[in-house]
Amino acid sequence: MSNGFDGNTSLQPLPVSSGPSVVLRAEGLTKVYPAVAGAALGEVELFRGLDLTVHAGEMVAIVGDSGAGKSSLLHLLAALDKPTAGEVWCGESRLSTFTPKQAAEFRNREVGYVWQFHYLLPEFTALENIAMPLLARGMGRAAALEKAAFWLNEVGLSARGQHRSGELSGGEQQRISLARALVTEPEILLADEPTGDLDTRTGVAVFELIQGLHQAHGLTSILVTHNLDFAARCGRMLRLRQGRLEEQKNL
Ligand SMILES: Nc1ncnc2c1ncn2[C@@H]1O[C@H](COP(=O)(O)OP(=O)(O)OP(=O)(O)O)[C@@H](O)[C@H]1O
Ligand SMILES: [Mg+2]
């Protein structure tokens, strides 16, 4: 087998590459919500033996019917919840072994999370909302606000820093929540229907902003969406169906 070296001195042997590193790996994930005594709802089994591998720099879309378990899966990947069985790995870390404090640290340091609803704090300005995760980890106010100003600019809203979140449009609020997710410079971005509450044109703008920031900052991203056009524009599309993820090759 050729190693790519053909005797031409201008050509170097190809380096042995193991490919991009694995950033997130879910192995044999099972999630069962127990039946609630007295409630009509019985046991809910969401996943059984779900596997997922996400490599550095990938942008993966997850689609699936409402109720398929997409949000529940993101919660497991962000250590917001624990699986009934199986494991989520982030590098060498096993998320199921985290104490609540370790899980909070993991979310603060490794993961940026964007929710369908922005959950900005209405009594604070846009800039202060972006700075919040840094203040939560103990960074001084001046340094946190300086970093927040950088990310405010990254999402194209440098003129809106002093506005309270209630004074911003839905699209602007979602941009601020994206800046808040990225201000800690996480490796991983998890976004759960970030355009779900927005009109078509604003949704496209927010999706393209996420895509641009993903590339510019070398993120590893997972985007849950009902929008198949957006999903097709991600590097890989997976469909969550009957508790498993299926690769979608063609629409
Ligand atoms: N704490 C819980 N206890 C019991 N069942 C739950 C719990 N959380 C979620 N579920 C159920 O799990 C299923 C999947 O919910 P999930 O929110 O993950 O779906 P989804 O794919 O994100 O849907 P959507 O596209 O509407 O956001 C639903 O049937 C939901 O009722
Ligand atoms: Mg959901």
Give the tags.
about 250 residues, alpha/beta, Rossmann fold, six-stranded mixed beta sheet, about 30% helix, globular, binds adenosine-5'-triphosphate, binds magnesium ion
- What class would the helix/strand composition place it in? alpha/beta
Identify low-pLDDT runs.
1-11
The SSE string, one letter per element, is: EEEHEEHEHHHEHEHEE
Radius of gyration: 20 Å
CATH class: Alpha Beta
- Reported by name, the CATH topology is Rossmann fold
Can you give a write-up of this model?
- By secondary structure, the protein is of the alpha/beta class.
- It has one domain (22-247): 3-Layer(aba) Sandwich (Rossmann fold), CATH 3.40.50.
- It is built from 7 helices and 10 strands.
- It has helices at 70-77, 100-109, 126-136, 141-154, 170-182, 200-216, 228-232; strands at residues 22-33, 44-55, 59-63, 85-90, 93-94, 111-114, 188-192, 220-224, 236-241, 244-247.
- The strands form 2 sheets. The protein has a 6-stranded mixed beta sheet, sandwiched between helices.
- The structure holds adenosine-5'-triphosphate (ATP) and magnesium ion (MG).
- Residues 33, 44, 46, 64, 66-72 line the site of adenosine-5'-triphosphate.
In a few lines, what is going on in this structure?
The protein has seven helices and ten strands. The protein is of the alpha/beta class and 251 residues long.
